[in-house]
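G., the chain you wanted modeled:
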Amino acid sequence: MRGGDKKNDEKGRSTRLNIVDQSLADTLERLREMPPSPRVRELRVKAEGFQRVVAAWSAKPPSEMQRNELLKLALELNVETMALGRQGGGEKDTR
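Predicted structure as tokens:
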């Protein structure tokens, strides 16, 4: 198989899945540190949805294409979250 993805950790998980997990954990931690806003909620829901997808993969392993796509999406979400943090966490919730 290709790349470093065949290197598995002690749980037998691929490197890509570990990167996705860490990226999502980092994203959620950053979002928890931001003031509540509609944008923060939107990004948190997205990250939590990605985490559910990864959890479901323990029952039915993903294809290489699925792993690649989720890795791309998780990293993009992380970058988007960092950018939002630099802007001060988005607009404050006025409710």
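The two ends are 51 Å apart (CA to CA).

Shout if anything looks off.
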